[in-house]
Design goal:
Elements (H helix, E strand, L loop, with lengths): L8 H13 L3 E6 L8 H6 L5 E7 L8 H11 L1 H4 L5 E7 L7
Parallel strand pairs: 2-3
Antiparallel strand pairs: 1-2
Length: 99
């Protein structure tokens, strides 16, 4: 949740990915609650550590799955260095998504 001008990790991630990938669809789901006892949660002291991300972007055209995931990881490198522990990524082109 956002509080007084401080964006949640999910909101920051969505903004960054949307801006860079010009996504036609983007979903960022915080599933950290499913990992409450996980060591990464205890070590960082944050509850925003695990996310599912679904992105549909024309920028994925001609890119294999590994390159698409690398694009996402690179865009979220700041988050990965500051407590984001796990990321599940679905990255499709508009054609693959039936759009």
């Amino acid at each position: 949740m956002a509080s007084r001008g401080v964006l949640s990790r999910a909101a920051r991630m969505k903004t960054r990915l949307q801006s860079a990938l010009e996504a036609t669809l983007i979903e960022v789901e915080d599933v950290s609650h499913q990992h409450a006892g996980h060591a990464a949660v205890r070590e960082t002291g944050t509850n925003e550590t695990h996310f599912n991300v679904k992105i549909v972007s024309g920028k994925f055209d001609g890119q294999n799955l590994v390159k698409r995931h690398r694009m996402v990881y690179e865009l979220l490198s700041d988050e990965l260095q500051s407590g984001l522990h796990a990321l599940s990524i679905v990255a499709k082109t508009p054609k693959e998504a039936g759009m």
